[in-house]
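REQUEST FORM: STRUCTURE PREDICTION
Request ID: SP-0412
Submitted by: Lab K.M.
Chain count: 1
Length (residues): 314
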Amino acid sequence: MSAGNLPGLAPPRPIPLKDRSSLVFVERAQLDVLDGAFVAVNSDGTRTQIPVGGLAGIMLEPGARISHAAIALAARVGTLITWVGEGGVRLYSAGQPGGARSDRLLWQASIALDDAARLRVVRKMFAMRFGEDAPLRRSIDQLRGIEGVRVRESYALLARQYGVDWKRRSYDPKDWEAGDIPNRCLSAATACLHGLTEAAVLAAGYAPAIGMLHSGKPLSFVYDIADLYKLETVVPEAFRIAGQAAKGKLDMAPDRAVRLACRDAFRRSGLLGRIIPAIEEVLSAGELRRPEPPTDTVGPAFVDEKPSGDAGHR
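STATUS: Completed
RESULT:
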C-alpha cells in the first residue's frame, strides 16, 4: 500500500521545483518502475534507484529506454523527461509536466506579437544579463548582435583565464566526437542549462517555442531565459573543465566532468529557485495586461504553500 493510501496520511504532493535537484543523465539502461521504485536497470540486471520526484528533469541519451509505467510516474510527480543526443547536444523530444496554462500562454503570445512590448522585454533581458541598460534606439536584431559580440568576448576572456586554446564556437551535433574539447564542454554545459530551464518553463505553464529575442526554434523561449544565467553558471565551468583536460588533470571524460560541475553550480547559485520568478519579471516588462485565468483552469504543476505567520516568523 502506498503512503498516499494509508489512513490518516495526506496524499503525496509534488516537491516544488525550486527545492529539487537539477538533472540526471541516463544512458545504456532501462528506466522502469519495479517494486514501487523508479529505477534504472543496467545490462547486468543491477538496479539503481532514482528519486524521480526530487528531480527537475531526466535526460535520456542513446541506449536508454523507458517504460510506460516510468513515464506515467514521472508525469505524476512533475519531472520532465527529455530524449537527447550523445552528450546532450541535440534534443529530440520532451514530455510536459503539469500541462501548460492557457492564460500564461496567451500572455506570452500577446507580448511576442506586439513589437513594442517584445522590444521592452528584450531590453529587460539585456539589463538582467549584463547589469546595465541596453543602448537606446536599437532594434531587436541590433541588440541580438550586441549580445553576440559580448558573449564571444566573454568566451575569449574565459579561455585565456583557464589556459584553453580557443578558436571559435563550432560543433556538429551529428558528430559529437568531431568537436574539440572546449566546444564539447560548452555543448554539454549548455545542454544541462537548457534542460533545467525547459523544465522550469514547462512547469510554470509557458511555451518553450514562443521566444522574444530568439525565434523560430522549438526552444526559443528556453534559450531566452537560459541566456540570463549562462555566463554566470555553466560557461565558466565549461572552460574550467576544458582547461583541466588540456593539462591532463581529469580522471573522467570531459563531458561527464562538465555535467557534475554544472550540477554543483546550479546548487550553489540556487538556480531552480530563480528561474520562474525571472520569467515573470521578464514578461512583466512588456507592460501588457495578463489575461485572467478561466474559472476552470488547471492549477500550476508546483504550488508553494503560503507561509504561516508574518515575515518575522522563520
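NOTES: The first strand starts at residue 21 and ends at 26.
Reviewed by: T.R.
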